[in-house]
Amino acid sequence: MNPLPNNPLLEQFLVESRELLEVIGQKLMQLEDSPNDRRVIDDLFRSVHTLKGNSGLFTFPEMTRVLHAGEDLLGKVRSGEMTFSRELADRLLDAMDFVGMLGIEIESTGCIDASRAADSARLGESLRALIADFPDSAQSGAAGKTPVTTKSTAVSLTEIPPLSKVPEALRLEAFRRCGDGEKFHWIAYQPVPECFFQGDDPFHRARQTPGLLWGSVLPSEPLPPLVELDTYRCSLKFHLLTAAFHAELVEYFRYVPEQVEIVALDPLWLAISECEPESRAGIENDFVAGSPGSEPQRSPESVEEAGAVTRILTAQQQILALDDRPAWLGGRLKAVAAVLRNLANSLGNAEAEAQIEASLAAAQASGCGLPLLEWLNAHRSQFTLRLVPQSAANESRANGEEAPAASDPSKATGDDGIKFGRRAEDSQTGPRSLKVDQAKIDRLMNLIGELVVEKNGLPYLAQRAEAQYGVRELSREIKGQYSVINRIADEMQDAIMQVRMMAVSIVFQRFPRLVRDISHKLGKEVELVLEGEQTEADKNIIEALGDPLIHIVRNSLDHGLETPEVRRASGKPETGTLTIRAAQQADRVVIEIVDDGKGIDPAVIKRKAYEKGLIDEAALERMDDRTAVNLIFAAGLSTAAVVSDLSGRGVGMDVVRTAVEKLNGSVIVESELGKGTSIRISLPLSMAVTQVMVIESDGQLFGVPMDHVIETVRVPRRSIHRIKQSMTAVLRGRVVPLKALNGLLGIAAQHTANADDELSVLLVQAGGGALGLLVDGFRETLGVIQKPMAGFLSGLSTWSGSALMGDGSVLMILNIREIV
Amino acid sequence: MPIEFKRNRVIFREEVRVEEAEALLEALQKKPAAKVDLAACTHLHTANLQVLMAARACIDKWPQDQELRTWLEAVLIP
User: Fold this and answer.
1) Phi and psi for B13 in degrees, rounded to 5?
2) The complex's ipTM?
3) pTM for this prediction
């Protein structure tokens, strides 16, 4: 059901926008109660601002535009230029509902339907209109209540456009087409001066305007003399006349909506554009309701119809009676004739047309309006008698090409604006994901941890019931209960872990770009293969994994993979392959970075390490190749001959090891000279539960993280050899140094041997190699919630933490790396 | 080259882009009387248009593209 393109950024945006909208809604309502609360206003402004900024990351101009207008409006409120009012809140809430609706639309279809552009523009303009209207609305709140008429909307929107610039023939042609129900728009397009830098060509945009009838280029400021002209600053503006629909224009100018002003042309303006504004206003009042194409809010009552017709006719008489002789008289006469013709048509008076034409011809010939006026006076009664209201209404409806409410932006200022309701009674489309504070999850995690520990107390209880009180029945019942609780607790723990789990793809997704950029820079051909992106691990682990991985990938690209020429010479395909593979293995996640490059030469590494003083001469001789290549993780080693800006400073791999070890992970490198290198990072799936092995020494219990444990062995006392102060033993054909735990911890006692005089040795992985720890005995392995040492104890590096055991006792966890 | 500068003529060809505006301005500053030949021009970037307007350039040949010609005649005929 969800065709959302797989874009995490977009998903995040949608989640965030939902939250922000919620906040905005709350704040708006809060503000209604206390309109002067500065803090709330600031918060509100910030939220809208953030949302607008975020929406700008995507191509949702519809959304951005509305938010931008909202932001401007709130900016005015914030700066005290406007006061907050209920009307303002309503309008903003509507706008936010619209934005929310767009969000849902994006979520379900992946894009915004083009039809929203008109609504968006309308909402945006209605918000801006609030800013513009403010002084009026402060005086009379009733202003918005008056029914919207064509006149008020048109005039409030803008000055009447300078149509006189349009060649008369063209204008009258347009006017005639108005009569056929077409609508025209006037566009004032004022590009921003910097638009050239944004790759914009306003002239091109203007030329390509849909339905363009006429256009003109004007300097927006007087053009300076040539020497001072800044070629890269746009100082032109455009006036355009077009026959396209409003929605189409909004769509066309959707990237520069703030630079254009689109005005629906009143046919009247086309007809009598040259009139003085005052006289025009007077005429318009009477005349506009009946002019063609203007979609008057006509009521079917014949009385009103008659009134309208009467007014129109009176207006025409007034026009014709004007006794001036302007140069545009011809246009005026034509206009009057056109009005009369249309009126006659709409009233079903067919024979009038020819008469009007004849009178017009006569009037034009004589150079005054008299013939037309005479005809009008003679036939006036005819109009009123012939009135057929229904047919008139129907006809004008049929001519209307689009619903006026949708096309006329300013209409939204009235009460009839479409509501983008997400009201309480609407069915809620619940968000599919839940954003929870990490602290809450952590608390849950801790509680589960305690439950797991407490549950471990039940077997002890059962034991006591049997051993101490001799009640076997009860003991068995307790064990039965325990197994049930155990199962539930385990599942619960698992569920909480799942909540914290994230896929490694979050980290992986940055690699394609990284590899591409770096390999291009180095002139290498590299194919990146990502595997097991769906492997999940704890959020903390995934987040901490990013930087080490980048180091490793950079290293592989820089040192590992060869240039195409070298590869060809050594018989390999020119394109190298870099594979990053993630997989879950038991309770660990293993990430491998494999390249098929030149591999690591152990001899070189050994020599370098020796030169840098990292190993001594003896170690140089002894060291096997496997251990040698792992020297790359030692601090201060760089094998690259030249330090590049990518790698070679000898810090990278050292950082990797430290980061991985901090996560209780391990990193191993394997390499075959000439074939390639594989680096293997193994990390715990979750840091919440640590597996520890419990060991005993001098009657005390200690925990050793299982990550460090290689094996447990019993070594006969006689096979332990002493070399000066050090003990060693040969285990599985390898010489392993031994250390006594008691000695390391400063416990005076000797380790006890078993009946066969064998000592218990815990073989651990510490630092570079294996080490045997002498202990008194082994106990079980436990999953514990490890608590770090806090307060004064945090300075004790011997311990990595403590954990509660099932019987309530505290288990100290050894920090193996520190004590050896 | 969409603009060709000859001795006393500037010839526009096809689509003249924003990058040309600087050179055009320079040329018209040096030779204010240069004649501009737009015959083969199909579009010129706004930047070029405003240079022509500011220079009150003398247009020698109007574009064959009728639509462009209408636009330009309205602003470039003094």
Assistant:
1) -130, 140
2) 0.91
3) 0.40
